[in-house]
Design brief:
Length: 282
């Protein structure tokens, strides 16, 4: 298991000013960080990758589809073309950063709804786009981990039944699913059972408390989650995801309007120790 933390807790775009906090993350003992890649150029992420490597941190990435006008699922040819260009940009940045994984909901715009679930045509367009991404990822030595979201954030992938079926249809070893405990806490009746169902299609495990605060302080049974993940043979990236109130672009997407952890030091140290202890005990 490689333990990481999603840097969205620091900001939506990681810059020089964030490096002291990231150095603290490295000193505490995290193995890698998950970098939000929402904007910027590959040159920026090449610079950041070099700085993270010098700290001894591995790199992972989380990305989204930013708007309906660049939706790879769209029936509109121009929107779908812009969506494909955006997915290519995501991979350009990942390769510059040196990412081992690309995670996140890079399937549909967050908060965009059609009034129904995904159509067969949308599923087929997504499968085509994500298989092309997987082929490029395989050539360049990293994995894709598409994130399911709860029904209040997307209509495309919500449950592990949907996610497993989708991954099976993409049918590429570089393509899998990012399992997120926060979203699953809303959509699944049994998280351990959901993880068993997902099985070897899980490429990243997001550890996120029911309130998106400090893991271990809320209602999610992380011992059961860790036990199910290990029983399924998962030994990959485990990423702490906690959100604060200081990232405007994140608040708009996730409806986070209040602080969910007391300070960075508490989040970093408590989450690190809790997940290491829970994983070892499972």
């Amino acid at each position: 298991m490689k333990l990481g933390i999603n840097l969205l807790c620091l900001g939506g775009h990681i810059e020089e000013s964030h490096l002291p906090q990231i150095e603290r993350i490295a000193a505490i003992g995290f193995d890698h960080v998950e970098v939000p890649v929402m904007r910027g150029s590959p040159d920026h992420y090449a610079w950041l990758g070099d700085r993270l490597h010098a700290m001894g941190l591995g790199r992972a990435q989380t990305s989204i589809v930013p708007e309906p006008a660049a939706n790879p699922l769209s029936g509109d040819a121009d929107e779908r073309r812009r969506g494909g260009e955006h997915l290519n940009w995501i991979q350009d940045c990942a390769e510059a950063l040196g990412s081992e994984t690309i995670g996140g909901p890079f399937h549909a715009p967050i908060g965009h709804f059609t009034g129904q679930g995904p159509t067969q045509a949308e599923l087929e367009r997504g499968i085509e786009a994500h298989r092309a991404m997987a082929e490029r990822a395989a050539r360049n030595g990293y994995l894709l981990a598409l994130e399911h979201l709860n029904r209040f954030e997307t209509y495309f992938l919500n449950t592990m039944e949907q996610a497993r079926a989708y991954a099976d249809r993409v049918d590429h070893p570089a393509f899998g699913i990012m399992y997120d405990t926060f979203h699953a806490n809303i959509e699944e009746q049994d998280q351990a059972g959901a993880i068993r169902h997902l099985g070897d299609r899980m490429h990243v495990l997001h550890v996120s408390e029911n309130d998106r605060g400090v893991p271990g302080r809320g209602q999610i049974d992380f011992a059961a989650v860790a036990g199910a993940a290990k029983a399924a043979g998962f030994d990959g990236h485990v990423v702490v995801e906690a959100f604060g109130a200081g990232v405007p672009e994140l608040a708009a997407a996730t409806r986070v309007w209040r602080p969910l952890f007391p300070d960075f030091e508490t989040l970093f140290t408590e989450a690190h120790d809790f997940i290491r202890r829970t994983w070892e005990a499972a």
